[in-house]
Every structure is written in C-alpha cells, then in structure tokens.
C-alpha cells in the first residue's frame, strides 16, 4: 500500500475548528479522510474504512464500504468543496474514538451538484495492532436555522 500524505493545511483546517480536547491522532485521521474524499483517492479510502462498515446516509439508507469505494471510483460521487466548520473528538478507551464533523460541502452526485452544511458522526476503531479505520457513521443535513446546529 502506498503511503498517503496529508498536506499540512488539511490538518490545520481541522485543528482550527476543533472544539474540546486536542487529539492530534484522530484529527490526522479526519484530515486523511477529507483529503481522500476530495481527491477521490480510492486506495486511501480503502485503507481508512473498515471492511464491515455500517454507514447511514442522509436519506437513511445504509451504505457499505464496497458501495462507497465504487461511487468514488466511478465518479458517481465527487467532493468538490469540503470546508470544515466544527470538529469534536471523544475517545472511548484506547481503541475507539467518536468524531462529529460539521462541514460545508459541494458534492456532485450523478452529475448533480448538491450544496449544504452536513454533520458527520464517525466511529473510529482499531483492533489487534491494526490501524485506525472508520467502522461506523452517519451523515445528516444541518438545517439553515443556526439555532439548530
């Protein structure tokens, strides 16, 4: 597997919106995931996502790792803009972390531009000396009403 490098500005953009305790390890993982989404880097996404991923999309449907990678590989999904607004990290022991990321996105889905603010909740885990991977998550649209964010 080739090493995946994250530009310092990717880390910095997430670190500047971090609320709560500083967790450079998990911020780095979120930066890698963001960079891989923007670049449609399927190899990097493959390394960051667990085989048995459980992810709920904004429409309530469950998605798999295979579906996610195929969407990026085919160009059916293209992240064009990804501006982090808020990141929170909560460690649950040494091998599990929860993240909540609010970001302004512009994503092309099947050639149609979708813009909005979304909140991702992700579960990162590592087992038996394996690297961190996303094992679960959810994404929801954030309403335009600032009082509900």
Description of the molecule:
28% of the residues lie in helices and 43% in strands. It has 149 residues and is an alpha/beta fold. A 7-stranded mixed beta sheet has the order 1-4-5-6-7-2-3. α2 runs antiparallel to α3 (42-48). The radius of gyration is 15 Å and the shape is globular.
How do the helices and strands follow one another from N- to C-terminus? HEHHEEHEEEE
Average pLDDT works out at: 90
Judged by helices, strands and strand pairing, the structural class is alpha/beta
Output the strand order for the largest sheet: 1-4-5-6-7-2-3
Strand content: 35-45%
Low-confidence stretches: 1-5
User: What is the β-strand count?
Assistant: 7
- How does the major sheet shape up? 7 strands, mixed
Q: What gross morphology would you assign?
A: globular
Could you tell me how far the N terminus lies from the C terminus, measured between alpha carbons in angstroms? 38 Å
Q: Roughly how many Å is the radius of gyration?
A: 15 Å
């Amino acid at each position: 597997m080739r090493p995946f490098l994250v530009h310092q500005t990717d880390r910095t953009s997430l670190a500047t919106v971090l609320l709560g305790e500083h967790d450079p390890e998990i911020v780095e993982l979120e930066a890698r995931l963001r960079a891989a989404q923007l670049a449609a880097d399927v190899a990097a996404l493959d390394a960051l996502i667990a085989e048995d991923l459980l992810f709920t999309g904004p429409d309530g449907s469950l998605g798999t790792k295979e579906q996610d990678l195929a969407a990026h590989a085919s160009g059916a999904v293209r992240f064009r803009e990804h501006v982090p607004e808020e990141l929170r990290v909560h460690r649950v022991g040494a091998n599990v972390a929860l993240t909540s990321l609010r970001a302004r996105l512009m994503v092309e889905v099947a050639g149609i531009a979708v813009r909005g603010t979304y909140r991702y909740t992700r579960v990162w885990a590592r087992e038996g000396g394996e690297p961190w991977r996303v094992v679960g998550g959810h994404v929801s649209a954030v309403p335009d009403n600032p009082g509900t964010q």
